[in-house]
């Protein structure tokens, strides 16, 4: 459990490193739909402004649940209020919904996390989700309209979310 906290703190501190990383890559990914929905902004939002570790988790008491590739053998999934409220309705998640999946290895050490952020109009063919994947150190690896994420998440029953059909039952803050 303790392994999760350092990751987040590191993410916050290494934000600057992540920024230069992106610049160095020449903005890998895609153009942003809106200036405030960029990868750096999203990382900052979910780790500093409104840390996702304070959100509700689907897996009861924020415990590990079995994950699959590419997310790793163990995952913990967090939903902000907008996402949590939209759950189980079988329709598109509300504007501003954010979902974070922490990825853990076999030893239950955090390796990184994936983020889905609902940005109306961003990418209608992909559920208008803005995708982002960061290492535990806050190094942004993918962001924007990430085909790999979209292609696989397209198989989910509701709104590109594999867990979108689940009710919020059992979730606690
Ligand atoms: C090959 C399939 C596949 C790919 C590629 C993939 N995912 Fe997932 N994702 C899943 C599955 C399956 C789950 C449900 C949890 C699990 O089994 O690990 C999931 C869960 C999630 C969740 C929690 C919400 C939900 O849908 O249940 C987020 C957030 C997420 N993925 C982000 C990403 C991001 C960001 C990328 C790309 C960088 C990505 N995923 C790529 C299969 C995939």
The kinds of small molecule bound in this structure are:
heme C
- Gross geometry: globular
According to DSSP, the number of beta strands is 7
Poorly predicted regions are 11-36, 164-173
Average pLDDT number: 78
Task: List SSEs in N-to-C order.
Answer: HHHEEEHEEEEH
Number of domains: 1
Report the biggest beta sheet as strand number plus sense, adding barrel if it closes.
7 strands, antiparallel
Q: Tell me the radius of gyration.
A: 15 Å
**Separate helix tally:** 5
Question: How far apart, in Å, are the first and last alpha carbons?
Answer: 16 Å
Assembly context of the chains: single chain
Please explain how this structure is put together.
By secondary structure, this protein is α+β, with helices and mostly antiparallel strands. The chain has one domain (4-153): 3-Layer(bba) Sandwich (Chalcone isomerase), CATH 3.50.70. 26% of the residues lie in helices and 22% in strands. It has helices spanning 4-13, 15-25, 39-49, 81-86, 147-153, and strands at residues 56-57, 65-66, 74-79, 98-104, 110-118, 129-135, 140-144. Strands 1, 2, 3, 4, 5, 6 and 7 form a seven-stranded antiparallel β-sheet that branches. A hairpin with a 4-residue loop joins β6 and β7 (140-144). The relative contact order is 0.19. Bound molecules: heme C (HEC). Residues 67-71, 75, 77, 99-101, 114-116, 131-133, 142, 146, 148-149, 152-153, 156, 161-163 line the site of heme C.
């Amino acid at each position: 459990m303790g392994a999760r906290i350092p990751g987040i703190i590191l993410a916050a501190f290494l934000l600057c490193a992540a920024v230069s990383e992106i610049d160095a890559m020449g903005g890998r990914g895609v153009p942003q739909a809106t200036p405030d929905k960029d990868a750096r902004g999203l990382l900052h939002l979910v780790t500093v402004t409104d840390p996702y570790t304070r959100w509700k988790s689907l897996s009861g008491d924020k415990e590990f649940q079995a994950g699959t590739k590419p997310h790793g053998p163990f995952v913990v999934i967090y939903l902000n209020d907008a996402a949590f409220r939209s759950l189980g309705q079988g329709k598109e998640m509300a504007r501003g919904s954010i979902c974070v999946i922490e990825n853990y290895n076999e030893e239950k050490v955090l390796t990184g996390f994936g983020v889905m952020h609902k940005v109306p109009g961003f990418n209608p063919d992909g559920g208008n989700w803005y995708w982002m994947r960061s290492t535990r150190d806050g190094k942004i690896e993918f962001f924007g309209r990430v085909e790999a994420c979209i292609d696989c998440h397209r198989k989910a029953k509701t709104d590109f979310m594999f867990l979108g059909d689940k009710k919020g039952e059992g979730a606690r803050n």
